[in-house]
Amino acid sequence: MPLVPKVQTHKISSNITLSASGYNVLGSESPAIEAMTDFLRVSVVTIGPDASVVEANAQMISRGVRLLMVTGPGDRLEGLITARDILGEKPMQVASGRGCKRDELKVAELMTPISSVDTLHLKEVLNVRVVDILDALKRLGRQHILVEDVDPLTGQPRVRGLFSATNIGRQLGVPVLAFELASTFAEIEAALAN
């Protein structure tokens, strides 16, 4: 049985302060990888396509996220659903068209199908800056973009992480509004200019 080294404790420093933020200081020229939510370190939050929009919203609130991965059998990614998809105009339009209540809608009716999801490849992300990711998000008109790589064990493609405009804004110290995409990018760009 290997010996476990003893950990020595110390009395806390008398002049210690709290960190101002839970995030690293991030700038527009920072490597993009520093702003990526890495699913090797952070749990992916998923939901099934047959779940109700009420369940999806509750899951987002309880997990503190604004995007859920929609998965089917075998953890196959079928799409994405965002807080904007659930709380924006889209549910009312779909419910009106179907002649039902918003709360009766299923995730599958509001999600972005996987065939419409744009991604970045991890090997490319390693060579770009935060500002490049923001430009891509703005160009796509999206708050999130997935990052994919190849699982070394299976050789199959996998979602490795994601970029979120809101999260990048927070890391830059910019208070961003969840649904105002144009405002979000304007505030982030203003912060980057300073």
N- to C-terminal separation? 57 Å
How many whole angstroms does the radius of gyration measure? 20 Å
Number of strands: 8
Task: Summarize the amount of helix as a percent range.
Answer: 25-40%
Arrangement of strands in the largest sheet? 1-8-7-6
Shape: globular
Strand content: 15-25%
User: In terms of per-residue confidence, which ranges show pLDDT below 50 for 5 or more consecutive residues?
Assistant: none
Tell me the count of domains. 1
Key terms:
194 residues; alpha/beta; CBS-domain; 4-stranded mixed beta sheet; 8 helices; 18% strand
How is this structure best described in words?
The chain is of the alpha/beta class and 194 residues long. It has one domain (32-193): CBS-domain, CATH 3.10.580. The protein contains 8 helices and 8 strands. The protein has a 4-stranded mixed β-sheet. Helix 7 (165-171) runs parallel beside helix 8 (181-193). It is globular, with a radius of gyration of 20 Å. The N and C termini lie far apart (57 Å).
